[in-house]
Description:
alpha+beta, two-stranded parallel sheet
Amino acid sequence: GGLLNEPGGQRELIVGVDDQMGSDDEPRTVPREDVATVMRQAVLRPQIYAGRSFDLRAKAPPESSETTVTIDFDALLDPLQGKNCDYSLGETM
């Protein structure tokens, strides 16, 4: 995935752990502004975000105004059901 130099606040944000976030044909990118927004919300909501690790991507920009745009940062991590990314390196020799 990668960071996009496109406006934030216009897409639905998707979270996951260990690179499991939907199908492989969906983009694994996110606007830099959306990353900054999630980081700011994490600072403002330590009771939800403290000690959490997760992957973040954004859906493609909506073609209509009926598409969901993420604004509920209290519920953003709910789909993870408490899971965090596993950054262990596995067994050592």
